[in-house]
Amino acid sequence: MNGTSPAYDVVVLGAGPTGENLADRTRAAGLTTVIVENELLGGECSFWACEPSKALLRPALARADARRVPGLRRAVEGPLDVPAVFEHRDAMAAHWQDADQEEWLDSVSVDLVRGHGRLNGPRQVVVDTPDGERVELTARHAVGVCTGTVTAFPDLPELAATRPWTNRQATAARHVPDRLVVVGGGVVAVEMATAFRALGSRVTMLVRGGLLGRMEPFAGEMVTDALREAGVDVRFGRSVAGVEREDGGEGPVRVTTDDGDTVVADEILFATGRAPHTGDIGLETVGLTPGDWLPVDDSYRVPEITEGWLYAVGDVNHRALMTHQGKYQARIAGAVIGARAKGEPLDDGRWGRHAPTADSAAVPQVVFTEPEVATVGPTAREAERAGLKVDVVDYDIGKIAGAVQYAEGYRGRARVIVDSERRNVVGATFVGPGVQELLYSATVAVTSEVPVDRLWHAVPAFPTISEVWLRILETYRDSDGSAA
Question: Which segments constitute the Pyridine nucleotide-disulphide oxidoreductase dimerisation domain (predicted)?
Answer without folding.
Answer: 363-469
